[in-house]
């Protein structure tokens, strides 16, 4: 699981005190570690890679080098996932990182690019309005009009630059990009070339070029990848936290950070409520109770760690402003209901069943049960 | 989850792998330099193997081909020597298992499974093909089973009442006589995980796995391949790996537990680094090893005397050093003295890959028999061939997999292998590659691959000439004991289940039916519907013997086999109703051991099934099972819990499921409604069920609001008494919230009604999740349904009727609901459907006969139906009324003809006047009957009694 769960754009509100960038790029923030790894790295490196695949994996998973340099873990999760991801980049296949929101897709992709190419900035942010120019190239119209079409008038996209320089390009939220725009990637990924018909030229990808895309697998169907494009990717699904404790840890850490930035008073008994929220989320998500004895239906919502964080943060705000400052079941009940019941018909039944079959009979959950019943009515 | 520090691990792994590989290579080259050919063989040829290791199997084949021994000795029970020839027969197809069982007690048994890729099997087939004598040399099953029995008895005493995993031993092939690993797998190849006491320690149970782990491999087969096979050992070098292995084993065995400073061999040093000190071996396991090895040595000596020096031995790698030693004959004999012995029999039984695998539930075995089989059979490029196989499977399942996908998957697997420092991609790499490329990151198709290919659906076959399976013996024994002769002549058998013999007979027949041995078919009982009587039609047909033989794969006793089959069926069942039927069957057949599994599956299915129809279908069978269980004295606690949970789910889901149904679906749902209703009745009628039901039935006569108030008050009363402090408190608050709902004059909640309804049900449930509240909650659900407009008329009517019958709805309320349903605003067809629901069925007519008011409502509505609509509702009404008995129909007709004139519709007034009856009881005329009545009852005419009768 990720150490930091959010997207770079929204992260770390309180860092800009001493003139530093609000959020430095991965290759800058961890420059020392990268340098140490590069110095110690004697294994073969693919063309234009800054590090060998082994060193990249170490950079992500953390470890201690022979000279005692400590590499902090960037991604806490199954080793297998990082290995497959790095291996994919070492072949000429593109990498697609899938996962529900809040599973550190962007984080992993940034650090992979930083470790492989030393540059994580060749980034295309996918939105519903991403045009083809963002992936291929655009024109500097002043030059175009003044001098006619030429290489100088051409504005290369990050992907085009990555191809020309043999770097790693990143595409965020691939499935949010309209399908026809997505498909421009097919030629790039299969032919490794980007034709410029206006000039009768093309840009051929240099060895070392590769592409990391991230996509939200709950958004499938929004702009689902065509099978032709999908075939060009090796897919790695980033899982949700494996154990409840890890998730509680992530949630409480983030809640703490957010809470501090919102100047909410610290909640002394909060950890129990956080554990409860995480338990509810995990049980509904996994479709089975924590003790593994009872199956439950899963609602249509994603119930990701990020949502658990927001439920708890909301609850804290409620407790701070309208309650007695202590996080109580009633403060989180409404938030949980909102997160679980997305589809008013089906999810409500799921939630009712969960309440009746699991929550009602659980030791020490009576107050929570009552709070939920009050808000569900 | 990985943790910081993983890099050290990786480094260690790589170093370890290199070292191991280096060691292997060194030995290989050394041997090659030493000279090749048969002459160089150091007889006896000791081939230490990893049980079920395809790599070992190949190496054994190569070694045998190279050395050409005069006789082959294999680790296994010597009693099987007579059966070995069967292995060459046409009809013998692995996986198969040798089965040894005590003659007098088929439950005491153990299995020696062989897959095609088992080294023992390969050696066996090699010997048979080359006409070389082959013998089994392990401790005879007569001793090992006897020892096992003793041990088990001792353990039983020790634990005293602690349930054994498999008390009659019929179903635990993996646990052999020595209690830690099956005798066929006495050494490596059988992880000790989850199986018996961990006395042996990982080193002893699978030394190759330990070596592999220390070299950084998760899969011992991979390590064997990498360290041994892919080092290019072939031809004359075929014996080299065994030399290296024997050396490593010697080192492992010599080292005393906990001594880490000893580095005789590199492998051992690695074992220390990676593994830590091995767990100290417990005496019994080690002793057993010594005894077994002594026996092996004796047999080896005898074989060498008989066939000359050139004898090959295939045994677990662990035993090789012991066989190399040559203690005196007398020392070995002394070890074997005084071993207990029982009479045993052996036979071959078919086996499956699933049983070889760990996932089969046997706790020990190999994880990937399918993959091993593939490795064994693939002539070259195993990864490419594997990927092609996987692609084929996925295509069959309609996933789009192109050749390009396969190419990419192979590339990724191979690059991953390089990344992980392995000479060739193994199962872990191929699986990762399949997930990333072929399955688009999803685990769902991957599970399919795991199930179908990595484990595989291979079923072994055994020739007909193999001796009878113990199941048949057990059956014969039972038949004799229960005096049930298998006869071809069909006959009827009536059983009174309260008798011990009859009960056992019934269980036997039910178990056989579960096993697909249709000796007896249940017949319609003569004794009516009583639950303690059963009738069977018995007929033994010759082919049933074949069925018995087939069923032998499930276990060695009828009970164990039936349990195993029931569990498997439960897991693979698709429909919820199947599982419930199975649960019922398990109870009938007296299989308490299978019941937990079936119950778990049932609970899971019920939790995930969102079709209330399915749930409603399942409930009655379950409740019936509960009743049967009561009769037969089985423990039905789990069942009751599941049934209650199921009912709860039905309650939650029903209101939503009843909305917006077409007439056919509504009819279907009405059947479900009735089924659930009677099931709930039975459920609530359990030991603790009556009190609350009766209490909640005391709703006041003034409509729903009061009824709710009454139950709310009841809950509050419970709180006051403090019978259940917490439970009552919560229900008290709920009840207060629920009263306004009930007070709603129409009783109709346009939105979210199911929530409030269920909640209202909750309110009247005073003491937690016991069974007592079920009926009350059910009534609440019915009330919600009865009062909701979107529910089909027939269902609303039915609900009202059920409530009325239960006394939960007063006559006034019923009349009000009927008035609503039959008012002018309601479409006539809908109203007719309501009538069908309300007064449909056999007893509905009597209701109308006795409650003139209801009849009047129907009558008024019917006369008000416009002519055009009348034709539409006629079929429905006809269906409703034609179901009544003729007498009822006539009474109704007469009542209607007479018209509503005679009846006074004042509330609470005397009942309607039937034609020919006076409005009041005529006491004098009634008294006139009494003398005759007393005469009939055989009592003297006591006037006090008479006055009571008349007064009432």
UniProtKB/TrEMBL annotation, chain A:
Q: Which residues form the signal peptide?
A: none
Biased composition (Polar residues) is annotated at 1-11
Query: PANTHER family, per this entry?
Result: MAGNESIUM-CHELATASE SUBUNIT CHLD (PTHR42759:SF1), MOXR FAMILY PROTEIN (PTHR42759)
Q: Give the protein's recorded name.
A: AAA family ATPase
Which intervals hold domain ATPase dynein-related AAA?
95-233
> Which residue stretches does the UniProt record annotate as biased composition, category Basic and acidic residues?
12-21
Q: Which Gene3D superfamilies match?
A: P-loop containing nucleotide triphosphate hydrolases
| Domain of life according to the entry | Bacteria
Q: Where is this region: Disordered?
A: 1-21
**A matching Pfam family:** AAA_5
């Amino acid at each position: 699981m990720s150490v930091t769960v959010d997207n770079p754009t929204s992260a770390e509100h309180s860092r800009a005190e001493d003139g530093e960038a609000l959020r430095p790029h991965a290759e800058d923030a961890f420059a020392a570690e990268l340098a140490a790894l590069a110095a110690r790295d004697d294994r073969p490196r693919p063309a234009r890679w800054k590090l060998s695949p082994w060193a990249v994996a170490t950079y992500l998973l953390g470890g201690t080098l022979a000279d005692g340099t400590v590499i902090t873990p960037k991604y806490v999760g199954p080793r297998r996932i990082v290995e497959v991801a790095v291996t994919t980049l070492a072949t000429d296949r593109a990498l697609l990182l899938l996962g529900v929101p809040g599973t550190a897709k962007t984080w992993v992709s940034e650090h992979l690019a930083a470790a492989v190419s030393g540059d994580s900035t060749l980034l295309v942010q996918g939105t519903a309005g991403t045009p083809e120019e963002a992936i291929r190239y655009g024109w500097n119209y002043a030059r175009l009009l003044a001098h006619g079409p030429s290489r100088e008038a051409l504005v290369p996209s990050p992907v085009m630059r990555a191809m020309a320089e043999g770097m790693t390009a990143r595409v965020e939220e691939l499935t949010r990009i309209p399908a026809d725009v997505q498909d421009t990637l097919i030629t790039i990924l299969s032919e490794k070339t980007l034709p410029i018909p206006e000039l009768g030229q093309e840009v051929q990808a240099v060895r070392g070029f590769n592409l990391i895309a991230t996509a939200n697998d709950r958004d499938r169907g929004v702009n689902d990848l065509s099978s032709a494009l999908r075939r060009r990717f090796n897919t790695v699904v980033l899982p949700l936290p494996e154990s409840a404790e890890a998730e509680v840890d992530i949630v409480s850490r983030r809640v703490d950070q957010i809470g501090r930035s919102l100047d909410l008073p610290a909640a002394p008994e909060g950890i129990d409520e956080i554990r409860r929220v995480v338990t509810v989320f995990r049980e509904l998500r996994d479709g089975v109770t924590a003790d593994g004895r009872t199956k439950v239906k899963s609602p249509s919502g994603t119930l990701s760690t990020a949502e658990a964080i927001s439920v708890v943060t909301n609850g804290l705000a409620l407790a701070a402003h309208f309650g007695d400052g202590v996080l109580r079941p009633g403060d989180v009940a409404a938030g949980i209901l909102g997160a679980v019941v997305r589809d008013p018909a089906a999810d409500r039944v799921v939630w009712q069943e969960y309440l009746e079959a699991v929550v009602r009979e659980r030791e020490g959950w009576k107050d929570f049960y009552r709070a939920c019943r009050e808000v569900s009515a | 989850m990985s943790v910081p520090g993983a890099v050290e691990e990786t480094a260690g792994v790589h170093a370890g792998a290199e070292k191991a590989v280096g060691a292997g290579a060194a030995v290989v080259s050394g041997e090659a330099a030493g000279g090749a050919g048969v002459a160089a063989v150091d007889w006896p040829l000791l081939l230490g193997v990893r049980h079920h290791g395809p790599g070992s199997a190949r190496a054994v084949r190569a070694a045998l081909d190279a050395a050409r021994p005069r006789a082959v000795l294999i680790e296994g029970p010597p009693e099987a020597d007579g059966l070995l020839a069967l292995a060459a027969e046409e009809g013998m197809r692995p996986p198969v298992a040798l089965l040894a069982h005590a003659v007098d007690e088929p439950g005491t048994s153990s299995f020696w499974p062989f897959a095609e890729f088992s080294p023992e099997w390969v050696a066996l087939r090699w010997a048979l093909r080359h006409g070389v004598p082959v013998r089994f040399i392990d401790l005879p099953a007569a001793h090992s089973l006897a020892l096992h029995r003793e041990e088990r008895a001792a353990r039983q005493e020790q634990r005293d009442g602690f349930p054994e995993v498999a008390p009659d031993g019929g179903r635990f092939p993996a646990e052999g006589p020595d209690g830690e690993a099956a005798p066929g797998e006495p050494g490596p190849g059988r992880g000790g995980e989850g199986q018996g006491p961990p006395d042996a320690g990982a080193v002893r149970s699978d030394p190759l796995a330990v070596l592999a782990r220390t070299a950084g491999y998760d899969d011992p087969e991979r390590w064997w391949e990498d360290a041994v096979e892919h080092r290019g050992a072939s031809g004359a070098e075929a014996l080299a790996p065994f030399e290296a292995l024997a050396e490593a084993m010697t080192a492992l065995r010599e080292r005393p537990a906990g001594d880490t400073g000893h580095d005789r061999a590199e492998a051992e040093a690695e074992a220390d680094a990676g593994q830590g000190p091995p767990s100290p071996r417990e005496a019994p396991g080690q002793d057993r090893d010594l005894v077994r090895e002594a026996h092996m040595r004796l047999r080896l000596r005898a074989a060498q005397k008989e066939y000359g020096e050139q004898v090959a031995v295939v045994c677990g790698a662990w035993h090789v050093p012991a066989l190399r030693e040559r203690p005196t004959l007398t020392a070995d004999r002394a070890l074997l003295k005084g071993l207990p012995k029982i009479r045993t029999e052996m036979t071959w039984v078919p086996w499956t890959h699933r049983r070889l695998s760990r996932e089969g539930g046997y706790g020990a075995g190999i994880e990937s028999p399918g993959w091993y089989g593939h490795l064994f059979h693939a002539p070259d490029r195993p990864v490419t061939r594997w990927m092609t196989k996987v692609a084929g499977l996925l295509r069959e399942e309609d996933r789009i997999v192109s050749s390009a996908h396969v190419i990419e998957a192979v590339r990724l697997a191979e690059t991953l292998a390089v990344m992980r420092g392995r000479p060739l991609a193994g199962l872990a790499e191929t699986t990762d590659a399949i997930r990333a490329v072929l399955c688009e990151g999803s685990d769902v198709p991957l599970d399919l691959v795991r199930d179908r290919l990595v484990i595989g659906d291979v079923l072994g076959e055994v020739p007909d000439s193999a001796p009878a399976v113990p199941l048949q013996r057990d059956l014969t024994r039972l038949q004799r004991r229960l005096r049930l002769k298998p006869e071809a002549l069909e006959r009827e058998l009536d059983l009174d289940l309260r008798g011990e013999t009859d009960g056992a007979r019934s269980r036997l027949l039910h178990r056989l039916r579960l096993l697909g041995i249709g000796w007896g078919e249940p017949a319609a009982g003569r004794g009516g519907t009583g639950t303690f009587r059963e009738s069977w039609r018995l007929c033994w047909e010759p082919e049933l013997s074949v069925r018995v033989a087939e069923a032998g794969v499930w276990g060695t006793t009828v009970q164990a086999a039936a349990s195993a089959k029931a569990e498997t069926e439960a897991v693979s069942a698709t429909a919820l109703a199947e599982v419930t039927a199975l649960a019922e069957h398990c109870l009938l057949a007296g299989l308490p051991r299978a019941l937990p599994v079936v119950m778990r599956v049932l609970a899971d299915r019920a939790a995930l099934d969102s079709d209330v129809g399915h749930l409603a279908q399942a409930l009655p069978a379950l409740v019936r099972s509960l009743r049967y269980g009561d009769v037969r004295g089985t423990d039905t606690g789990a069942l009751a819990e599941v049934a209650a949970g199921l009912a709860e789910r039905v309650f939650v889901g029903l209101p939503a499921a009843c909305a917006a149904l077409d007439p056919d679906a509504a009819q279907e749902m009405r059947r479900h409604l009735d089924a659930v209703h009677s099931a709930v009745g039975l459920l609530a009628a359990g030991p603790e069920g009556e009190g609350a039901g009766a209490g909640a039935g005391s709703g006041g006569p003034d409509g729903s609001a009061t009824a709710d108030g009454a139950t709310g008050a009841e809950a509050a009363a419970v709180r006051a008494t403090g019978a259940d402090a917490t439970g009552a408190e919560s229900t008290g608050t709920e009840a207060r919230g629920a009263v306004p709902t009930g007070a709603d004059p129409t009783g109709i909640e346009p939105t979210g009604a199911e929530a409030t309804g269920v909640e209202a049900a909750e309110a009247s449930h005073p003491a937690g999740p016991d069974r007592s509240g079920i009926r009350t909650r059910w009534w609440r659900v019915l009330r919600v349904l009865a009062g909701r407009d979107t529910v089909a008329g027939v269902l609303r009517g039915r609900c009202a009727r059920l409530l009325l019958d239960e006394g939960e709805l007063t006559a006034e309320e019923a009349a009000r609901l009927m008035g609503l349903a039959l008012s002018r605003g309601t479409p006539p067809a809908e109203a007719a459907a309501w009538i069908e629901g309300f007064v449909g069925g056999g007893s509905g007519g009597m209701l109308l006969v006795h409650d003139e008011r209801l009849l009047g409502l129907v009558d008024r509505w019917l006369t008000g139906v416009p002519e055009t609509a009348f034709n539409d509702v006629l079929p429905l009404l006809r269906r409703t009324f034609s179901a009544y008995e003729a007498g009822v129909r006539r009474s109704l007709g007469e009542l209607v003809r007479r018209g509503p004139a005679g009846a006074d519709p004042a509330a609470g007034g005397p009942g309607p006047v039937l034609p020919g009856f006076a409005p009041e009881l005529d006491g004098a005329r009634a008294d006139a009957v009494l003398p005759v009545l007393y005469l009939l009852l055989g009592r003297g005419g006591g006037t006090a009694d008479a006055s009571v009768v008349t007064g009432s």
